Give the backbone structure.
Amino acid sequence: MKMSSKNLLFHLVILLLAGACKKDENPAAELQDGKSTVILDLAGDTEAAMSENTPGKVKRPFNIFLFRFKDQKQIWIRNAADSAKYLKTSEWDIAFTGPYNSEIYVNDKSYPYNPGYGGAAESAVVLLHQAYERVVMAPADSEFDNSDITKIGWAASESSGGWFFYSLSSHIMQAIPNRTYVLRLPDGKYAKLQLLNAYKGNPPSVTDLNWPAPYLTFRYYVQQDGSRNLSATD
Amino acid sequence: MITIHVRHAFKWVFILSLFSSLSPGCSKVEEPETEPVEAGSAPYNKLITVSNFGEALPAGSEPLDNLSPIYFSLENKTAAPVEYRKTNRWDLSFSSTYRSFMGGNNGTDKNNFGADGPGKGGILILEKNFDEVIDIPADDLFKSGSALIGTDDAGAFGQGLGYYIYDFDGRIQGDGSYDKQHVAYVFQSNRTIVVRTAKGNYAKIKMLSIYKDLLDPATWKRDSPHPFFSFQYVLAVAGSKKFEIK
């Protein structure tokens, strides 16, 4: 019984990796759908580490960076002056915070741990358990209003709202499939967002703890006409 | 090319078998240590205190390891063995990192440890003191998954509103010294967990500590024995609108 379930798992893993292998040949092209913006390997704070003795890195908190959807502008927050200049403004849509810039906040003034706390922007996030391309409609506003997703980061379990699993024993940070985040942006527009990887090159899986990171790969689509239509294919 | 992927796969399987090999070591402690308890033996409307529920983690466990869950019956005030997983004889699961993530028992949620069982429970957390939680929340507010409530966004690896702060660097609540790093600070106020039990009754819970015999946050250190959960709760019978202590 135990063996057979292990065998099943083994074959599943093979299948998954084989499937990922095909995509591997041109990850960016695979992610393009005609309308979405694909960001491949955006360098985060590559000099920081969670612990001592990480080659080429120093143990310190990760600098956060902000990102603006409309022109892909990356804004670094390295000191108090940067914080004062940017955090409470509407010049950014999402913030990459926490370990390896892996915890993403959508600019919002009402939540104390949001980098935009006390600022100008209001937003909300809903997690849909669907593949990115299958998300074609933003949910009702009541779902945004009732959502308790405060940030998009580590997932403690399948039931969590985060985008990745992580285990120190396997040294793997792994994006969870079929998790698409629908955002209600400060200007009222709807968007969908998929986080794919924090490892350089968007590899399907990593076994080397020192694989270059964080290099964020993600894609998003903002519906500019204000409607709920999130279909990003022509 | 294929060999490389096979090697990856082996590693995954190896890791997973390692994980499953940990489980038998836990079975000893997952058996209830006390004599079987009569169903429904914990009284309604009384303050019930639980001290040090849990068991030592397997040797060599890392903080983020996904550990085998343990189960607790609020209605019986006792641990429930893993064999009861698909019954309504437990109300709370403790799993994931440090086994510190809590969930209810719900048979309809495939991500619940009680999936396909009779449990009709759920869980939620409020940013309120225990005494201030009087009204029982509406049933549709309870969440049905497992490992739902744990780290708070005030600390590292936060999962929204949680019942403890994970102080990775030891600088949020401590002085940054070695002993105060990686401490889990349970909110002893301003957080209340509300559970719908597997049988449809209700409980409100005040978490106190995850450190064995240590309830004072000043005494919590990275190596203090954990996770051993101490908490207080009050049960209310199904259909109640309010929590009361009589």
About this structure: Residues 191 and 222 of chain A are 4 Å apart (CA to CA).
